[in-house]
TrEMBL record:
Protein name: EF-hand domain-containing protein
Keywords per UniProt: Calcium, Metal-binding, Repeat
Alphabetized CDD domains for the sequence: EFh
Claim: Calcium is one of the keywords in the record: yes
Length: 187
């Protein structure tokens, strides 16, 4: 078991190193702009929803909000996506969903993201609920005090205790395979 974990970590470290080489090749200036980020992950000609989703991801990693990812932000993003714990990835997801930055998710924010995920990923699965129904179900499961907003603690607790919700969030939280797959599209 320990040997398996070590081998797995070596593979992940090798993938991070490969993506860092790509960063340095694609961005010799040391600054990765949104259009370059999209190109690296093969999203130039994708749907508007996938483009918006990638913009949201980009902005969540642009910690100094200068509209670029420097090498440190890029490595931190890769480390979170490829090696981060479930708790760390859920915190990141919450931050990404919290578009107005007030520390709470309202129905508008959740519904907006569910619509994007629905068009990108949920259509390919056997989910029979509409984005509005999914949003309602999330609020039923997670909004403990029924105030119409989800706090970080409600989000973390709800995401970890309900199998349906964790499966839904895994569409976003388990982005490592998506990152690796799309990064390999590069010439």
């Amino acid at each position: 078991m320990i040997q398996e974990k070590s081998c797995s970590e070596e593979v992940i470290l090798a993938q991070i190193q490969e993506m860092c080489v790509i960063f340095l090749r694609e961005c010799p200036s040391g600054a990765l702009h949104l259009h370059e980020f999209k190109r690296i992950f093969g999203v130039q000609s994708s749907s508007p929803e996938e483009s918006l989703f990638l913009e949201t991801i980009f902005r969540s990693f642009d910690t100094n909000q200068d509209n670029t990812l420097d090498f440190i932000e890029y490595v931190a993003a890769l480390n979170l996506i490829l090696r981060g714990s479930l708790e760390d990835r859920l915190k990141w997801s919450f931050k990404m969903y919290d578009r107005d930055g007030n520390g709470k998710l309202d129905r508008k924010e959740v519904k907006s993201l569910i619509r994007i995920l629905h068009k990108i990923k949920l259509q390919k699965t056997e989910v029979s609920l509409t984005p509005s129904q999914i949003c309602d179900r999330i609020f039923e499961l997670v909004d403990n005090n029924n105030d119409g907003e989800i706090t970080l603690s409600e989000f973390m607790e709800g995401a970890q205790k309900d199998e349906w919700l964790i499966d839904l969030l895994n569409l976003d939280v388990q982005t490592s395979s998506w990152v690796i797959q799309n990064c390999r599209k590069l010439p």
